[in-house]
Amino acid sequence: MDLILWRHAEAEDGSDDLARALTRRGQQQASQMAAWLRLRLPRDYVLLASEARRSQQTAAFLSKSYEIAPQINPDASVEEVMQAVGWPDNDKTVVLVGHQPYIGRLSALVLAEQPLLWSVKKGAVWWLNHRVRHDIEQVRLKVMMTPGMLTSND
Fold first, then answer.
1. What was the pLDDT predicted at 154?
2. Distance from C-alpha of 121 to C-alpha of 73, rounded to nearest angstrom
3. What is the pLDDT of residue 152?
4. So what's the pLDDT on residue 151?
5. CATH number of the domain encompassing residue 102
6. If 0-12 CB within 10 Å is exposed, 13-18 middle and 19+ buried, where does residue 30 land?
7. DSSP 8-state symbol, 16
8. Residue 80 to residues 72, 76, 109: CA-CA distances in angstroms?
9. What is the pLDDT of residue 63?
10. Whether the Cβ atoms of residue 84 and residue 48 lie closer than 8 Å to each other
């Protein structure tokens, strides 16, 4: 299974967390990352976004066809997120557009088997791969990409 954890791009401040929209910079971050992903994703990937406006706006730069999954809202636990994406047994590539802190916690748990909080920049992707080789389960970090890595002026 390939799981791409994509943190929503930069969003406006606001008291209604689910209503916060992307900033102009966030729109640029999402557009650039979507273009990078589009060249690398298989045709049959699944795209999930939380109920947060900023998550859905980020996802829409990749595809207008995405599934809204309340299980990956900002207050979700790592366990809820893993269940929502079917980790590690899903046979599809899943792109999850979500939030900190669970993206950092999930990454630390599956890569280092530690309950740590790793920092994940806004708009960044962590591309994880689960496979079994020679009867041994393996989790690999295929790519960690930030929006700033896609532009020469950042």
1. 46
2. 17
3. 59
4. 80
5. 3.40.50.1240
6. buried
7. S
8. 7, 6, 14
9. 98
10. yes
Stretches in the chain below the pLDDT threshold 50: 154
Give the total number of structural domains in the chain.
1
SS3 5: strand
Nearby residues of 4 by Cβ (< 8 Å), 6 or more positions away? 37, 41, 93, 94, 95, 96, 125, 126, 127, 128
Structure tokens at 73: 């809202």
Q: Give the number of residues written for the chain.
A: 154
Structure-token pair, residue 35: 């273009």
First-to-last alpha carbon distance for the chain, in angstroms, is 32
User: Nearest CA to 6 among 79, 60, 80, 65?
Assistant: 60
Helix axes 24-38, 53-62, angle to 10 degrees: 40
Which residue range(s) make up the domain with 15?
A: 4-150
Distance, CA of 13 to CA of 65 (rounded, Å): 27
